[in-house]
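queue> holo job accepted (glycine)
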Amino acid sequence: MGSVRVQLGERSYDIAVTSDGDAGLGSFARQRIRNVRAFVITDEHVIEHADKVAAALGAAGFQPLRVSLSAGESQKSLAAAAYLYDQLAEAGADRQTLVVAVGGGVIGDLAGFVAATWNRGLPLLMVPTTLLAMVDSSVGGKVGINHPRGKNLIGAFHQPIGVWIDTAFLNTLPDREYRSGLAEVVKYGVILDAELFAYLEQHTAAILARDAECIRHLVARSCRLKANVVEQDEREETGLRAILNYGHTFAHAFETVGGYGAWLHGEAVAAGMICASRLAERRGLIGADVTERQRRLLQTFALPVAPQRWPVDDLLAVMRRDKKAVAGRLRFVLPKRLGEAALFNDVPEEDVRQVLENAGD
Ligand code: GLY
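queue> job finished
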């Protein structure tokens, strides 16, 4: 079992990366918390995984209670949070009750938000079951639910007491979701680690075959890279953590204009990264070769590299709203070379329009 330490003073925690099933999960939790009550929150797609998690906790002396929700982004709502608060109240949860999130990004964000707010904060154990949640959303403490005005508008920073990643959970993940998660791994390569990017290029076959050793390496490296950023800018105050949003300004516009059902998040991020990379080219930060390497890699993972034929004016309108444009200038994370990126607040809207209008070329 590998382990990544997130150093945040008294909020420090370990991310365990294993493929050995739930052996070790009970003691991992027990070493971090002494109470007995555990509240396992999951969704209908991964109930079997959640049952195994609950059994492992039970064997370690916890009394787990499992609550299952229907799957989907619509669960990141006040209504779903209220339902979970009712369940916690009924179960007599106290401030020591361990909340365990077993699922993808939606369950992690929702269960994490409930853990952050019930009784002024309960301990949280993340057990991600999708690649996206393993490499991104379960690490770093961002939890939240959506408001009709926008995603994640109601939320908190609430670091977990630990993250348990069993890559064997990925064996049952639908192919499209798996590939969507790979987009976030590619992102880490572009913004922080040229060596990781080269590793991805050299191991595409093993990655697509879901080779366990290869996945463990990708997950552990991605978590380490994210942890390094979170350790330096936990609450996204200095601009450093913002670089994790590479490709996401475009992606948010694609998801909003295309409707959230059109693309999975990672698919939108993949096309968004290529658009952001082309912006960086226009600014003279990188050569076309850097974009081309990303494009080729993402295409190998069967991810989209250009938006669908959505009206450019609609996409720009979302970006203007999203990022508080000042005098026709927008905010983007742009690569400065492979393995390094920075936040730019002064991107002319006209450049963004040009990139979008020529995106399919
Ligand atoms: N997913 C971006 C972040 O955690 O900051």
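queue> The mean pLDDT is 95.
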